[in-house]
Design a protein that fits this description.
N-(1-d-carboxylethyl)-l-norvaline Dehydrogenase, domain 2, binds nicotinamide-adenine-dinucleotide, binds D-Mannitol-1-phosphate, 6PGD_dom2, Mannitol_DH_N, Tagaturonate reductase, Mannitol_DH
Length: 473
């Protein structure tokens, strides 16, 4: 039994002044944003830490408690192949100062507004976090939603007559910075915070849209005991990640100096327009992830690596990318092919276990943003449906019957499926026609109903591997 990681087991690790407020202390943020702060600190380029704010009442995975027990230290383990070299690094991250739970200590949370050193705000509260919650109140301690909490903090900062923040959300939603700003302004209006505050919000604060990319499977449950022996200490919040990292920030040129990520050698791009980067990533990385999940799970596969090591499945992924996704994107084909090649290498990473079930969370909304737009464009341009996306779509609908694989989605979405599956003969029509799921009536798409019906029948008759084999050869 080893000792718990702490500043006693590792004396001498630097303590930095707080320069960033970070909403959400999940695996991703700790292995992405805080890991990057650490790299800048290692080179003397930032000399700052992040103070994490817990965005919801419950501490997911008891991260807040474990961080406190470990003096806010934790380990990031990077495993993979980078520039043809095997990377297996372990680093103790000391760039988080503390975790504030605003549900337990709201005053400590609001007191962040007093600290002039704090100039950046980041967040990852999952796709669900950047949302307007009708009825959220200024006098709740704290307001329920993340944007509500942020509005309260910004208002306190304004009242103190201090400068604003550079705000960089990392949630995987399109135009995340703009959406967050929109909701903060809506609360400012709802809560009658006044024209001067609105003016300060706009002129003193910069909301940047951003796009993040790093695969972070998180806590290595299966290897935890072996790692503990290797590291010589116990760390209940260590996180595994791939070495690859990419962060696109749509922000002013001056940010390059203030947040010297690129100077520290990190793969970070500051750009006035991130649209092309977003399309490339969402459709060529997240899209195949979402397509492989139901097909892989129905065939009994467990991880992304299992999918890539299976001849039939990896052919499916390659064909999906090259024949159905890339031709529908507007960037130069050569650049897309090179990115897609790198993505498939990352999917093959032999050192990390990326569970299909962890990607499956909220698969319906993921299908809508990651694959449906490509499917619609393909149908429009080619006059027929893309076969691979359509088969994956059918597998997804089947998986939402809930009898063969476990579903992870909101109660509303599951209720729609339960209702639709209760009448199997009309299921296809009901589900494709549900505009709350797809934003449009998919029964109107020529050939869609018939294709989905045929695939569903086939997936019931044969397993998904056989169905795939017929398709990909
Ligand atoms: N893990 C990855 O490989 C990866 C890579 C890129 C992006 N992401 C994104 O990061 C997000 C978080 O992933 P993770 O691996 O850190 O997960 P995680 O479960 O470790 O952390 C989730 C975080 O979100 C917060 N949260 C959960 N529900 C919320 C809600 N309704 N409102 C506000 N906050 C909420 C939790 O408090 C926690 O801080 C994912 O949704 C994904 O969009 C993950
Ligand atoms: O994180 P999610 O659940 O939104 O999506 C699952 C994966 O597609 C995603 O985490 C990717 O691994 C990540 O976006 C890579 O940067």
């Amino acid at each position: 039994m080893t000792n718990r990681l702490s500043r006693s087991t590792h004396p001498g690790l630097p303590l930095h002044r707080e320069r960033m407020i970070q909403f959400g202390g999940g695996n991703f943020m700790r292995a992405f944003v805080d890991w990057q702060l650490q790299q800048m600190n290692n080179q003397g380029l930032f000399n700052g830490s992040a103070v994490i704010v817990q965005p919801i009442a419950q501490s997911v995975g008891r991260v807040a408690e474990h961080m406190a027990e470990q003096d806010n230290l934790y380990t990031v383990l990077l495993n993979g192949i980078m520039d043809n070299e095997t990377v297996n690094s372990r680093e103790i991250i000391s760039s988080v100062s503390r975790v504030i739970n605003p549900y337990m200590d709201y005053e400590a949370y609001l007191a962040l507004a007093e600290n002039d050193d704090l100039e950046f705000i980041t967040s990852n509260t999952t796709e669900a976090g950047i949302a307007y919650l009708p009825g959220d109140r200024a006098d709740s301690t704290p307001p329920v939603s993340f944007p509500g909490k942020l509005t309260a903090l910004l208002y306190r900062r304004f009242e103190l007559g201090k400068k604003g923040f550079v705000i960089i959300p990392c949630e995987l939603i399109d135009r995340n910075g703009e959406k967050l700003q929109e909701i903060v302004e809506r609360y400012a209006a709802d809560w009658s915070l006044g024209g001067e505050f609105l003016q300060w919000l706009k002129s003193e604060n910069t909301f940047c849209c951003s796009l993040v990319d790093r695969i972070v499977p998180g806590y290595p449950h299966e290897q935890a005991a072996a790692l503990e022996a290797e590291l010589g200490y116990t760390d209940l919040v260590m996180a595994t990640a791939e070495p690859f990292l990419f962060w696109v920030i749509e922000g002013p040129e001056s940010l390059t100096e203030r947040l010297p990520l690129a100077k520290a050698g990190l793969n970070v791009v500051m750009t006035p327009d991130m649209t092309a980067y977003r399309e490339r990533k969402v459709h060529l990385l997240n899209g195949p992830h979402t397509a492989m999940v139901p097909l892989g799970l129905l065939a009994g596969l467990a991880t992304v690596e299992d999918v890539m090591n299976d001849g039939t499945f990896s052919r499916f992924v390659k064909q999906l990318i090259e024949e159905e996704l890339i031709p529908m994107l507007d960037l130069p084909a050569e650049e897309l092919l090179s990115y897609a090649g790198a993505v498939q290498e990352r999917f093959r990473n032999p050192f990390i276990r990326h569970e299909l079930t962890s990607i499956s969370l909220n698969s319906i909304s993921k299908f809508k943003t990651r694959l449906l737009p490509v499917m619609l464009r393909y149908q429009k341009e080619r006059g027929r449906l893309p076969e691979r996306i359509t088969l994956a779509f059918a597998a997804l609908l089947l998986s939402y019957r809930g009898d063969r694989i476990a579903r992870q989605d909101s109660a509303e979405v599951l209720a729609v499926f339960d209702q639709a599956w209760s009448e199997p003969s009309s299921f296809v029509n009901t589900i494709l026609g549900d505009t709350s799921l797809w934003g449009q009536d998919l029964t109107l798409l020529p050939g869609m109903g018939a294709a989905i019906t045929a695939h569903l029948e086939r997936l019931e008759r044969e397993d998904s591997r056989t169905a795939l084999q017929e398709l990909v050869g």
